[in-house]
C-alpha cells in the first residue's frame, strides 16, 4: 500500500503528472469570478468564502478522473487487483495520494487567493480550517466516484455528475462554517458536522470503492 | 455468453501449456477467467489462487517512470526485491534508467515481461506475450520461462500465435471447443 | 414454491400481463375522481384563492418522488442479495418515473411559488432537497446508460443507489440546517392540529391513491419493456455466430 | 469535412459519447453556487448573470479534451492527418461539432437555469443572446487549446490552464454585456466587441489549430 | 537523434518491400518518416505524396460505431464508397453490424486493415500489420496485398517480424544501417 502511495505521488510530480494543475485551476476559477460578477468589493467580499469553497470543490473534482483511469488504460489496475494488496487498501492509498496532491495544496493556497476575492480578515483562518477538515472527504468520495466510472472511456463528465450530489453535504457544512466564521458568528455546529462527514467517509467509503472496483474489473 | 465449452486440462508443476486457436476463439477470455478476472459461466479452476499472475499486452508500464522504477514498484507490491539477474534475462541492462515512454514497442514489451521475473509467482497466465518481439527477444522470453520459471517448479499457460520453441510445453488447440452455437449466457437465458 | 419464483422473468411477464390494464384503469379512475373533486367541488382557500388547488398535483407527485427512490433502493438491495434480474430492471424502470414525479413536484411548486411567495424559486430547504434528489436521479440514470454490460450496470447502479441514499439523507439534514425556508410543514401528519381542513383533505387522499396506482402501473409497464429489451438483446447475441 | 462533422456528432450522441454531460455540468455548477455563497435572494440575483457565464465557460472547457484526445489515442488523428482533408477544415469541423454539442445546448439552457439563481426578469434574453454570440468563440479557442495539448495523456487540466487566459476577453465582454442588459443599461459596446471576438476567432484560429496539430503529429 | 543512416531503396509499382530488423532498430521511425509524419534528419523520399497512406496498430477504429460505419467514414473522407467485396477480402461479412468495441483483438485488427481496401491509395506504409492475427487472417491480408493492391500497380512498404508469404516482396534488413553512435540530433548539435 505504501508502495502504491509512493508510486502515485512520484507519478504525480513527474512531467505530465498533473501535480499542481488542480491548484492552477483553483487559481483560475478564483480569477474568473470577478470578471463574471463585476468588481464591486462589497459583493465580492460577501461571496468570497463561498466561491473559494466552490472553486476548491471543482478543482478537486476535475482531478478525479486521473485517480484510476490511467492505471486502467495501461492495464496496471488489473495487475494491481491480482496482486496481494486488498482492494480496500488500494482505494485508501489512491484517495490519500489524491488528497496529498490536491486537497492539501488547495487548503494552503486558499487563504492566499482569498486576497483576490476581498475576503475579510476574519475569514482567512476559518476558510483554511474548513478546507483542511473537508477536503479529505472530497478525496474519499471522489475516489469512490472514480472507481464507479473506471471502465468508461473519457467518463470525466459522467464522473462529475455522479460525484457532485454526493459533495453537497460537505460543501454546505464547509461553506456554512466558513461563512459564519468570516462573519464572526459561532461556527461550532457546522464544523463538527464537517468533521463527522469526513470521519464517516474515511471509515466507510473504502469498502464501497473496493466493491465497485471488483465489479468493474470483472 | 459462452464462448468455449468443455475445455478441461491439467498442467503439472514444471510444465507449460500453449493455447492455440484462430482469432476470436476465446483465448483471452479463457485466460482472464483462469486468472479470476471474470467469472466462468460454468466450471471450476483449481490451483493456489495466491500463486497466480496474469499478463497481457496491457502491461501497466508507466511511461513517466524509468524501467528500474517500474520494476521496483512491482517488486514492492509483491514484497520482493528486484533480482539483479533480471537485467540480463531480458537484455534490459542498457535501458535500466531510460524512461519507459521512450522505449520502442518491443523494448517496452520486454519490460512488461520482466515484471514476471520480479513478482515471483508460480502460476502464470500469459496472453500473447511475444507481440512485437523480434526473434532474439522471443528466445530470451522462452529461455526465461524454461530456465527460471518452469525449472523452479512453475506453471505457465500461454496463448500465442507463434512458435515459442518450448519443449516442456504441451499444446492445446481450442478450435474444437468453440461453444456450439454461442447460446445466451446464464443471465440472458432467463429472458428467453 | 417460494415467493421468489414470481420474479422469474417469464413468470413475471405472465402474471403482470393481466394486471396491467386494471392497474392503469384504477389509476385513471382515482385521478379523474380526485382531480375533479379537488378542482371543482372544493371552495377556494380564503388566503390562497384558487391557486391552492395545485396541491392536488403537487403533494402526490412530491410523495411519489421520494417513494420511487425508496422502491429503487429496495429493488437494488434485492438484486445485490438475491440477484433477481427482474428487480434490477424494476429499479432501472422506476428511475425515469421517479424523475418525472420530481419534475412535476418542482414545476407545480414553482408555478405555485409565483403567486404565493412572489418568486418561482427560493432556496428553501424543501425545494432544495428536491433539486438534489433530481440530481441523484440524473446520475443514476446516466450511469445505467453509460455501461454496456447489463449485469455490471445493475451492480454499479445498485451500489450507487445505496451510497446515494445515505448522502441524500445527509443532504436533507444539511439543507435544513443551511436555510430555514418558507415552505409548509408536513400537513398530512397524524397530529390533527396541523392538518389542512377536511374539505381539501379527502380529495387529496384520492389523488394520492391515484398517483400511487399510476406509479405502480408505469413501473410495471416499463419493467415489462425492459424485460422485452433484454430478451431482444439475448436473441441478438445468440444470433451472431 | 462534412463526413467528419457527422461522425463526431454521431459519436457524441452514442452511448458514452458525452452529449448532454456538458449541460449537466452547467446545471451542477449553477446549483452549487448558492450552497457556497448562501441562499439570500438579494446577493444571488446580483451575481446571477456573471455566474451563468462562468459556469457556461467551465462547462465548455471541460468538454474540450474530448475534441482530439480520443482520436489521438486510437490513432484516428494520425490517419485523418494523412487523409486528403486540409487540417484547417478538420479543425473547423471539430470546433463546429463541439459547439453544436455544447455551446448551443448551454445557450438554450441558461435562461432556464437563471430561475435558480434568481436572475431578474430583465436578464433572460440578454444572457441568452450574449451566450449565443460568445460560445462559438469559446469552441474555436478551445479547439486550438485541445490541439496544443493533444499529445499529452490526460492533459485535461493542463488544457484548462492554457485555455482559460484565452477565454478571459470573451468572458469580460460577454458577462459585462449580460450584466448591463440585466441592469437595464445600454449594452451595445460590449455586444459589438463580443461579436468581433467571435468573428475574429472563426476567421483566424483554424489556421493556428492546423499549425499546432501539424507540430503535434510530427 | 539519428536512429538509422544511409538507408536507401527503390520500390517499383506492383512490388512490396518488407522491412526487418530487431526491436528498436528504427522500423517504426523509418515508416513514419516516409509517411511524412516526422521529418528526416537528412535525406529525401520521392513518391506521389497524395497517394500515400500509413497504418500502424493504432488503427483509429471507433468502438462506439459499427464496423460498417467505421469503414464508411474512411470511404467518405477519401471520397470513395465502401466496395462490397471488402467484406469477403477480410472475412468481415458476419461482423458488419457489430459495434467495433465488442470485437476480439484480431477481429478489430482486420477491420483496421480493411480500411486500406477502402481508401484506395497506391503507396502503403504498414507498421506490423499482422499483430494479433492468426495464420488464416495473415493469409487473408497477404492475399489482399497481392491480389488487390500490388496487382493494381500499388506499392507497399511493410515492417514485420513474421513471414507474410509474399513472393512479390523484396526484404530489407535494417540491422546494418543502425546509426553508428546515436549522436546528438540536428537541433542539439548547435549547442555542442
Ligand atoms: C419547486 C418548488 C416546490 C417543491 C420541490 C416542493 C416540494 C414539496 C414536497 C416534497 C411536499 C411534500 C412534503 C411532505 O408531505 O412531506 C410538498 C407539500 C406541499 N407543498 Fe410544496 N414544494 C414546492 C413549492 C411549493 C409552493 C410554492 C407552495 C405554496 C406555498 C407549496 C405548498 C405545499 C403544500 C401546502 C404542501 C402540502 C403540505 C405537506 O403535505 O407537507 N409548495 N411540497
Ligand atoms: N464485449 C463483448 N461482447 C460480445 N462479444 C464479445 C465481447 N468480447 C469478446 N467477444 C467475442 O468473444 C469471442 C472471444 O474473444 P477473445 O478476445 O477471447 O478471442 P481471442 O481468442 O483472444 O482472439 P485474438 O486471437 O483475436 O485475440 C470473439 O468472437 C469476440 O468477438
Ligand atoms: N522519444 C524517444 N526518445 C528517445 N529514443 C527514442 C524515442 N522513441 C524511440 N526511441 C528509440 O529509437 C529507436 C527506434 O525505435 P522504433 O520504434 O523505430 O523501433 P522499431 O524498429 O519500430 O522497434 P519494434 O520492432 O520494437 O517496434 C529505439 O532504440 C528507441 O528506443
Ligand atoms: Mg486475444
Ligand atoms: Mg515499432
Q: Top keywords for this entry?
A:
heteropentamer, B: 192 residues, alpha/beta, five-stranded parallel β-sheet, C: 241 residues, 0% strand, binds protoporphyrin IX containing FE, binds adenosine-5'-triphosphate, binds magnesium ion
Task: Describe the sheet with the most strands of chain A.
Answer: none
Q: What number is the mean pLDDT of chain A?
A: 89
| Number of continuous helical runs of chain C | 6
Number of domains of chain A: 1
Biggest interface and which pair forms it? A-D, 46 and 48 residues
Secondary structure: helix percent of chain A:
over 70%
What class would the helix/strand composition of chain C place it in? Answer: mainly alpha
Helix content of chain C: over 70%
Number of strands of chain A: 0
Shape of chain C: globular
Order of helices and strands of chain A: HHHHHHHHH
Low-pLDDT residue intervals, each spanning 5 or more residues of chain A: none
Q: Cα distance, first to last residue of chain A?
A: 22 Å
Proportion of strand residues of chain C: under 5%
Let me know the largest β-sheet of chain C: none
Structural class of chain A: mainly alpha
Overall pLDDT metric of chain C: 84
Topology (elements, then pairings):
The complex is a heteropentamer, with two copies of chain A (218 residues), two copies of chain B (192 residues) and one copy of chain C (241 residues).
Chain A: H1 2-13, H2 21-37, H3 41-62, H4 66-73, H5 76-81, H6 87-114, H7 124-148, H8 156-182, H9 188-217
Chain B: E1 16-20, H1 27-34, E2 52-55, H2 67-77, H3 86-89, H4 105-119, E3 123-127, H5 135-149, E4 155-159, E5 169-173, H6 186-189
Parallel strand pairs in B: 1-4, 1-5, 2-3, 3-4
Chain C: H1 9-40, H2 55-82, H3 85-117, H4 125-146, H5 150-178, H6 198-239
Helix pairs in contact in C: 1-6, 2-3, 2-5, 2-6, 3-4, 3-5, 3-6, 4-5
Bound molecules: protoporphyrin IX containing FE (HEM), adenosine-5'-triphosphate (2 copies) and magnesium ion (2 copies).
The site of protoporphyrin IX containing FE (HEM) has 21 residues of chain C, from helix 2, helix 3 and helix 4.
Describe this structure in words.
The complex is a heteropentamer, with two copies of chain A (218 residues), two copies of chain B (192 residues) and one copy of chain C (241 residues). By secondary structure, chain A is mostly helical. Chain A has helices at 2-13, 21-37, 41-62, 66-73, 76-81, 87-114, 124-148, 156-182, 188-217. Helices cover 80% and strands 0% of the residues of chain A. The two termini of chain A are 22 Å apart. The model of chain A has no long low-confidence stretch (mean pLDDT 89). Chain B is globular and about 55 Å long. Chain C has one domain (21-180, 215-240). Chain C is built from six helices and no strands. Chains in contact: A-B, A-C, A-D, B-C, B-E, C-D, C-E, D-E. Chains A and D meet through helix 2, helix 3, helix 4 and helix 8 of A and helix 2, helix 3, helix 4 and helix 8 of D. One adenosine-5'-triphosphate sits between chains B (3, 21, 23-29) and E (102-107, 132, 134).
